[in-house]
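HUMAN:
Just now I want nothing more than another pair of eyes on a protein record. I would be glad if you read both lines and explained how they fit together. I have put the entry right below:
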Amino acid sequence: MTAQQLKNSILQMAVQGKLVPQDPNDEPASVLLERIRAEKERLIKEKKIKREKNPSVIFKGADNTPYEKIGDEVRSLADLVPFEIPSSWEWCRVGDLFSNMSGLAYKKDALAIKADKMIRVLRGGNIGEEQFLFKGDDVFISSELVKPELYLRKNYMITPAVSSLDHIGKIALIDKDYSETVVGGFVLMLIPHFNDDVVSEYLLYAFAAKHHRDNCRNITHKSGQAFYNLSREQMMNLPVPIPPREEMGRIIAMLKRVLPKVADYAVVDTALQNLNGSFPETLKKSILQEAVQGKLVPQDPSDEPAEALLERIRAEKQRLIKEGKIKKDKHESVIFRRDNSHYEKLDAAERCIDDELPFEIPDSWEWVRLGTVFQHNTGKALNASNRDGEKLTYITTSNLYWDRFVLDNLKIMPFTDSEVDKCTVQQGDLLVCEGGDIGRAAIWGSNKPMRIQNHIHRLRAYVPVCTRFFYYLFYLYKGAGWIGGKGIAIQGLSSNAIHNLLFPLPPLHEQERIVSAIDTALDIVQKL
């Protein structure tokens, strides 16, 4: 059970007479309602409020069924009240207890008028869960533009009248008279006929109960794209359960003891929910971190070391250069170890790169630049100067998700023969987003060729490697903020940036064992 569900249950018990026991010595609620009706009549005679066109009186029959009398007509309310209440309680309507008034309506130009006395205007966002708050962005208006009857007084209640549906039904009780605070025109003030602290505080909880808030939402109509208007007339007709005043006091005392415990539970429950939500992803990142540091599976001394794999990669690149299939990298670098440190040789210069390495790796592994292992390029950019060729489908970053592709609504653009060769991906290629969610990656698993646009990198290993190991590296780097993050992270992922990414290179067989272990572990995490 969530904290909100627990709170809802407690408030529901309170308004059904199940939270505290009834005391037969209590003055029944009918006597309290008679006093409230008498006070309402006094206000009508003094012309402080108006009489409704069709005033009604709710009473109970001998069978405890509520009835309503309007003029000479009497009807049963058995189907209209949401639950049963104790025999000492009574049903009434909101309008039997309150009159209502909209807050201050003003134009934006009025906010520019300054005066010696400025009045704070509370809006819907100031109303929380059974409380209101002053906020740093509250607006103020000259007192000359505010009628005295709009000032908030003790035991008024305020509720959003025009708001998003989530905020409709929120309620707050005014704790004292305010001479410098009003509510805005989209907030409704409920003004009690009978100004009594105990009655008002009980009604605050009664209006906070889920059934009442749901009723408020049900009597709204949509206004514009995101706002809902609360029907004042229908709200004043909503039913309210009224206990004896002495029982109200006991209910309030119990709620004041219990609800702070619920609030404490809410803090713990929220932390637990956050942990449950983040735990699988955090665990996944921890598994990947262990994997890329050589800690997930043991090293096998019989494995061919990564250095031998690098030699094959370099030999293959030299072959492709000689055959004119790729160009020689003018700034090809070699990373090597010396005295337990890592150095990079570029042309004739050497420099220590220990500060660039994010973690330590086993002795049988090597650090490499990504461009050493993978041939890479981006796809085609469509513009006015390159509209020749055959019209073919292609994928964009919107089709590329982590570890998968969504191939709905593929776009089409022309590709020449040379562009087809450069921009076509084949099974096993690693594709990485240059734009959009920078660094997001997936392996093309289909044996059907597909073209890419210019915001996707195509990575194709020079010699066979376990490409999925490198996919996991991208996932880890992205999650750690080393790609598209802040500070020293790579902000973008240009061709030069992806070429120079530092990646650990394990022996080939260890790459395969690592990926198998990761897949097994993540399958377990997925079931948590």
